[in-house]
Specification:
The complex is a heterodimer of chains A (291) and B (289). Chain A has 291 residues and is of the alpha/beta class. Helix content of chain A is 42%, strand content 16%. Chain A is built from 14 helices and eight strands. By secondary structure, chain B is α/β, with parallel strands linked by helices. Classes of the chains: A alpha/beta (291), B alpha/beta (289).
């Protein structure tokens, strides 16, 4: 995985962010989601690196990045803090302006980057998410069932930690197996990256904190920014076999948050970069490189 | 300390489709008490003796719970439907010689009690619902507030995962204070939550709730059917029914013409926390000889 890329741990002053860097060209930051690591990009990053300087990062708390102490208000794991991590990483690497693509939780960090650091983001892609606030304000029984983990993981410490920690491999297999096109879709090296992280209690705790933040402080930030818009071009991609497709008008939910939105569904489940790497690559090349 | 349910019989009774563990005693007009999740019939141990002074009291473990049999697993969870459980309770009462009776149900037991009264209006003379509204009314009010407060409905309804997660450490999941619950009640509860079959059976009760039970409620409502008997609705003031629904009785109004109710000052486990107040409210409502 990531042949020709270099591994680097970037000190942001608040924590350490692990990245893989490869290629030459305009900077493109890639952010993963739950319960994964930067390894989700392993099938698209090498091709992107022929055109971009690719930075594939682990979000704080996940993978090999730092595990800052959680705070009662969950601010240590709010998307504003995670976005600040990434803005600082890009500063440290010498990139003033950059493009960013985020899947799942990384998409929420991308959303926050576009609002809090608008002057630095040139183009942004969000994969398989609708805005956090939109989900909470439009929840129904069906959606609560589809997204039960949002509610489960946001329960107070340490109930989800204990329940997941009793059998972390099982939880990982369930999540990766049921939201995509089946467990076999994942490369063994990528799976090793996910499991190595997930077997560590501090990673499970950080993921829970990520969801606790989403159900509290992130919503406060999103409500305060209700009238704010993402000003850069935004690409939204999502899976046709996923839970959003058919349940939400995904482009419409983003059109409420951004001025220039394009996008489409791809024939796959939740894990787009691993299920349809070629299509994701084509979409990224068209959107980020204009060709 | 005297044993709980002194003077009551404890039996296992076969009815079509189920084998029910049941405690019964007392004399007078019959009342059926249906416990909730994750309890067994012993949750009534402080209420049943009070009622038994003037009534024949029947407290089964619901199918899928405690020491009763497990319903068959079916893809649509109809084995754990409230319709099926109500039919089993009706058959149980018939076996004990009670053709007409009053029913009180708490929590999950309130859904079976409600279904019993809807499906068998000739049998149920009075219905008391404790801490519940019809499932369809709850699900249609699933806002952010509801989803946050009752997230366990959606967690439990996931396939397989909750069993694995809960059974890894049932005491951590279910809690339960032996002093507050009473030692024997707690021991009965604890045996249930450590039995993988029972944990599965209890979760199936929720899975049925989101599908087949909701559909049965919807069909009744579309047909304009209502309860034929008087309804007493009680809720725990320190639980979240008022928080979720505001005027709890208003939610029930389209289902019942003879409706009354009030809050009781306690937390969720009303029968354990406020047995005297609960028994008084039930005795005030149930028929007397």
């Amino acid at each position: 995985m990531f042949e020709g890329f270099s591994d680097l741990s970037v000190d942001t002053g608040e924590t350490e962010i692990f990245i893989r860097r490869g290629g030459e060209g305009p900077p493109l930051l890639l952010l993963h989601g739950f319960p994964q690591t930067h390894a989700i990009w392993h099938l698209v990053a090498p091709d992107l690196a022929r055109h971009f300087t690719v930075i594939a990062a682990d979000l704080r708390g996940y993978g090999r990045s730092g595990k800052p102490a959680s705070t009662p208000d969950h601010a240590a794991h709010c998307k504003r803090t995670m976005a600040r991590d990434m803005a600082t990483v890009m500063t440290r690497l010498g990139f003033d302006r950059f493009a960013v693509a985020g899947h799942d939780r990384g998409g929420r960090v991308t959303h926050r980057l576009c609002l809090d650091h608008a002057e630095r983001v040139t183009r942004a892609a969000v994969l398989d998410i609708i805005p956090t606030l939109t989900w909470f304000e439009q929840v129904t029984a069906k959606r609560a069932l589809d997204y039960y983990h949002w509610l489960f993981l946001a329960q107070p410490f340490d109930l989800p930690e204990r329940l997941i920690g009793g059998d972390p491999d099982y939880y990982m297999h369930q999540k990766l197996g049921s939201w995509g096109s089946g467990f076999d879709r994942f490369a063994p090296e990528a799976m090793a990256s996910y499991l190595d992280a997930w077997r560590r209690p501090e990673v499970v705790h950080a993921a829970c904190e990520d969801y606790r933040a989403a159900a509290s402080i992130d919503l406060e930030h999103d409500r305060a920014d209700r009238d704010a818009r993402i000003r850069c071009p935004l690409l939204a991609l999502w899976g046709e076999k996923g839970r959003m497709h058919g349940e939400f008008d995904v482009l419409a939910t983003w059109a409420e948050k951004a001025t220039d939105v394009t996008g489409r569904s791809l024939p796959c489940g939740h894990y787009l970069p691993e299920e349809q790497p070629k299509m994701v690559l084509d979409e990224f090349m068209r959107f980020f490189a204009g060709g | 300390m005297p044993p709980i349910f002194a003077g009551f019989a404890l039996e296992t009774i076969e009815v079509p489709g189920a084998r029910l563990r049941v405690r019964h005693g007392g004399a007078g007009p019959p009342v059926l008490l249906l416990h909730g999740h994750p309890r067994t019939h012993t949750t009534w141990h402080r209420v049943a003796p009070i009622l038994a002074r003037s009534h024949t009291v029947v407290c089964p473990d619901l199918p899928g719970f405690g020491g009763s049999s497990q319903p068959p697993d079916r893809p649509d969870h109809a084995g754990s439907s409230k319709r099926a459980k109500a039919a089993a309770c009706l058959a149980l009462m018939a076996r004990l010689g009670h053709r007409r009776f009053a029913v009180a149900g708490h929590d999950r037991g309130s859904y079976t009690a409600f279904r019993l009264a809807m499906d068998h209006p000739g049998a149920v003379t009075h219905l008391a619902v404790l801490d519940g509204v019809p499932i369809i009314e709850a699900l249609e009010r699933c806002t952010e507030r509801f989803a946050r407060a009752w997230w366990h409905w959606f967690f439990y309804a996931q396939p397989v995962r909750p069993e694995r997660a809960i059974l890894a450490d049932p005491d951590a999941w279910y809690g339960g204070d032996p002093v507050a619950m009473g030692l024997e009640n707690h021991a009965d509860f604890r045996a249930a939550i450590h039995d993988p079959a029972v944990v599965h059976g209890m979760l199936e009760d929720y899975r049925a709730g989101l599908g087949v039970d909701r559909a049965h409620d919807a069909a009744d409502r579309a047909a304009g059917r209502q309860l034929a008997c008087p309804l007493l609705c009680l809720w725990s003031a320190r639980d979240d029914l008022e928080f979720l629904y505001g005027d709890v009785l208003a939610v029930w109004r389209r289902w019942a013409t003879d409706l009354r109710g009030h809050a009781i000052d306690c937390g969720h486990h009303m029968a354990e926390e406020a047995p005297t107040d609960l028994a008084a409210a039930l005795l005030d409502f149930f028929p007397r000889d």
